[in-house]
């Protein structure tokens, strides 16, 4: 079973352009309590390097691209987020890192909870111990 879980997102559009809608109940598997996005990430600067005890997230590059690395403590998978309808779920207790941001990357994240520092696991050795 893959660590990468894509959401089945429908892009609507015509000669005027495209529209991608993400709806709770139809697309997003949780109540959305927080929305944030990363922009202007400098070349060669990775982000992330943490897991969450309870938080579940959905991530999509609405512009540009980045590489998402997911790790459950036993397996790792890399996936390019490089299209606005390529949407992934980052489950709780999944270590995640973002690499290789394009200059125009806007990474949008929808989260199941508000920010809570105590939910973060920022030490990979601690994460590995918890998932054993």
From TrEMBL:
Pfam family, one: FdtA
Domain Sugar 3,4-ketoisomerase QdtA cupin: 5-130
InterPro entries hit by this protein: QdtA_cupin_dom, RmlC-like_jellyroll, RmlC_Cupin_sf
Protein name: FdtA/QdtA family cupin domain-containing protein
